Amino acid sequence: MTYVVTESCIRCKYTDCVDVCPVDCFREGPNFLVIDPDECIDCAVCVPECPVNAIYAEDDVPGDQQQFIKINADLASSWTSITKSKGALPDADEWKDVKSKLAELVK
Amino acid sequence: MSSSIETDAVIIGAGPVGLFQVFELGLLEIKAHVIDALPIIGGQCMELYPDKPIYDIPALPVCTGKELTDNLLKQIEPFGAQFHLGQEVSMVAQRPDGRFDIHTSADQHFISKTVFIAAGVGAFQPRLVPLDGIDRFDGTQVFYRVKDPEQFLGKNMVICGGGDSALDWALYFADKVNQLTLIHRRDDFKAAPKSVSKMRELCDTGKINLKIGQLAGFEVHDDKLSELLITGIDGAKSSVPCDVILAFFGLSPKLGPIADWGLDIDRKQITVDTEKFQTSTPGIFAVGDINLYPGKKKLILSGFHEAALAAFAAAAYLSPEKTIQLQYTTTSTKLHKVLGVGNTE
Questions:
Q1: Domains of chain A with CATH codes
Q2: pTM for the full model?
Q3: ∠B146-B150-B153 over CA atoms, to 5°?
Q4: ipTM value of the model?
Q5: Cross-chain residue pair A19–B252, CB shorter than 8 Å
Q6: Best residue of A15, A45, A46, A59 to probe chain B, by most B CBs closer than 10 Å
Q7: What region holds the 4Fe-4S ferredoxin-type domain (chain A) (predicted)?
Q8: Span B52-104, pLDDT tens digits
Q9: CA B311 vs CA A34, B20, B26: distances in Å
Q10: Closest CA to B254 of A20, A46, A2
C-alpha cells in the first residue's frame, strides 16, 4: 500500500507534510506534491499535517480521486525529492477551497 | 562517559509496543532497560495524538493516546524497568562474546544479551530552522532545547513557534534578555490559553516583540548570526536583532541510524520472521511499526502480539537449556509472585 496526495494540494502546496515524513518520500513539482509509492512505509504521520486534507491511504482515496494513485506513481519517478517544508504557494489560500483543479496541475 | 550498564534486554523505543515488551519480558523474569529519543514516555501516542481517541485496542472501546500510555505504565510497574529518555540510540553492534554494544547520543553505553527494536517510525527529532546555511550556528547561536538558561541572559533572543515550549520559554526569558522577539507563522497559538494571554500582556508592555510571519533569511556580522529577516503575513519585510534563536517547530520522526546496524531492511523497515519476530541478527528482535513481514499491519494490537512472541523467543535465546512454560496470569502463582499480586507466600 501507499499514501496518495490528491487534488486539494494543487496550487496550494503547503508542504507541512514533508517535515514529518520519516522516510523522505515526498516529491515536488511546480504546484503539487506527490508521494513515491515505492518509498512510503504507510505510517500515516503526514495525513493530519495537511491543512487541506489532501492525503489519503491508497485504499481510502475517494472515488472521484482514484486517478491520483497513478498520478502520484507516475510523477514520483520524474520529480525531485523535497525533505524540508517551505512556504506555501503565494496564492494558496485562494485555491485551498477550490474543488476541481486537476486542469491546473503543472507536470 | 557514564559507566556501562550490563543487562539482559534493551528496548529501543518507549511507545506502546516498547512498554508492552517490558511487560511480556517481565512475566518471563527478564529485566529491561528502555531508551527513547523523546524526553517523555509514550512515543507517537504522546507526541502525535495524546488527546485523540483510539478505538481499536482490544477490550478498551475507546481511550486516548495518553490514557493508553498511562495504563501501560501502570501495567508494567511491577517490573521496575529503567528508562533512559531524551537520548537516541546511535549504534548497535555485536561484541565478540555475542552480546550487543548499544551506544546513545547521551554517551550512555549498554552491554545487553538481547535487543528489542520498538522504534516505530524512528526517533523524534526537532524540526530544524528552515533557512539554508543557518545550521552552522547550531549549538552556538541556534538551539532546539534549553539546557543552560544562564548563557542567554542579556542577549537579543528570538523564539520561534506557537506551542507550549515556545511560549513557556518566551514568558521565562521576557525580562531576562535584552530584547525578545517571538515569531510564529500565524496569529493562532496552540499553547495553553493562560500562557497565550500572559504573552499578549507582555507584548502590550513591550517586553515581547511579536512578529507574525515566516523566517526569510539571516545576516551574519563578524562571522556571527546578527539579524533575522522576517516576511510578515502581509508580505512586509522586517528584521530583528538576533544573538540567539530558540526554535520550537515541533518534532518529526526520522528513521536515522537504524539502517546502519547491519540488519536486513526492506523499504526502510526491519524484516523479521513471524515465529520469533527476530531480525537477521539472532538476539535482535523488532516489534511494532518498525518491522515488516508478509501481511504486516501497523496496528498497536499487532505490536502487542509481536512483543509476546518475541519475549518467549528471547527467553529461549537467553536460556537455551530451559524449557519455557506458558503460564496464565489468571492461575499461575509464579506469575502472581512476579506481578506482586494475590497470595504470594
A1: 3-82 (3.30.70.20)
A2: 0.83
A3: 105
A4: 0.75
A5: yes
A6: A45
A7: 1-30, 31-60
A8: 899 999 999 999 999 999 999 999 999 999 999 999 999 999 999 999 999 99
A9: 40, 10, 9
A10: A20
Min Cα distance A79 → chain B (Å) is 19
- As a whole number of angstroms, the distance between CA A69 and CA B175 comes to 53
Whole-number Cα distances in Å, B278 to A14, A56, A105, B91, B290:
40, 32, 45, 18, 12
Q: What are phi and psi of B2, to 5 degrees?
A: -75, 165
Please compute, for residue B203, the number of CA atoms within 13 A of its CA located in the half-sphere on the CB side: 14
Residues belonging to chain A with any Cβ–Cβ distance to chain B shorter than 8 Å: 19-23, 38-39, 41-45, 48, 84-87
Q: Which of A22, A39, A85 sits opposite B130 (nearest CB)?
A: A85
Residue B101 to residues B4, B230, B317: CA-CA distances in angstroms? Answer: 10, 46, 17
DSSP E strands in B42-168: the ranges are 53-54, 63-64, 82-85, 89-94, 100-104, 109-117, 123-126, 142-143, 156-160
Best probe of the A interface among B49, B121, B229, by most A CBs < 10 A, is B121
Q: For every one of its 345 residues, what pLDDT tens digit does chain B have, with 9 covering 90 and above?
A: 568 999 999 999 999 999 999 999 999 999 999 999 999 999 999 988 888 899 999 999 999 999 999 999 999 999 999 999 999 999 999 999 999 999 999 999 999 999 999 999 999 888 889 899 999 999 999 999 888 899 999 999 999 999 889 999 999 999 999 999 999 988 889 888 999 999 999 999 999 999 999 899 999 999 999 999 999 988 899 999 999 999 998 888 888 788 889 999 988 899 999 999 999 999 999 999 999 999 999 999 999 999 999 999 999 999 999 999 899 999 999 999 999 997 645
Question: In chain A, what residues touch B254 (CB-CB under 8 Å)?
Answer: 22
B17 contacts B288 by C-beta, under 8 angstroms = yes
Neighbours of B334 (CB within 10 A): 13
What are the cell numbers at B52?
Answer: 485523540
Domains of chain B: 5-124+252-339 (3.50.50.60), 128-249 (3.50.50.60)
Q: Cβ(A34)–Cβ(A76) under 8 Å?
A: yes
Would strands B5-12 and B109-117 be described as parallel, antiparallel, or unpaired?
parallel
